[in-house]
User: Fold VOC family protein from Chloroflexus aggregans.
Amino acid sequence: MIRALDHVVILVEQLASAIAAYTAAGFVVAPGGEHADGATHNALISFPDGTYLELIAFRRPAPEHRWWRHVVAGPGLIDFALLPTNTTIAVATAADRGLMMNGPIPGGRIRPDSISLAWETAWPPSPDLPFLCGDITDRAYRVPDADFWGHSNGAKGIAEVVVAVTDLVASVGRYAALLGVTPQAFPAEARIRLGESEIVLRSPDSGDPHVLDRLTRRGEGICAITLKDLQFPDLSPQLGAAIMA
Assistant:
């Protein structure tokens, strides 16, 4: 079973400068740490609804890394993860519905306080789909707690994740196979409720400039998010990522 949205991944050029920019935008940013492969490090912005934003930067050239291709297009929203109850079961269930996920694959991170975290991921066959991130160590060690929820900009969680897709019908089918729920479809978009958040699949026919920009610069994938109770209508110009109220 896939329970909820887990987190959104935002590529940044330099982690220290990104932390300063997001702090100036009213977020409380928690230190993350270095990932097990040594290629990336991160910082986290967590919310009371259990979701979080991951600011991630490369520490070295890593052409083998899934997200390295996004470096050419520059900073911005690049991916998002869902939280399974059990990664192995979620992968097997998706396979039974005809969707082959690559995983579970072990991963981890060392926090600045030297605590080692472990998780499993599973990766989708197409970029319109999210990856899965299931914890081995307690999730409370991975996600910053209430001490980091006091964002002065009012943000309380992730309300929507907007995904740019080229073929809405095909993407709806893949999401149905992953989640076991058929998205509610409209002429140019489809919506899936997952926990306290909603995933919105949106095609170029919508005319959404974020969709068109994503498809032009990066191909299919996450292109915008809306945050609960954010006091500013659009932080895109300030942060270089489509983060809106």
About this structure: The chain has a mean pLDDT of 94. The chain is about 20% helix and 40% strand. The longest strand covers residues 2-11. The CA atoms of residues 38 and 59 lie 7 Å apart.
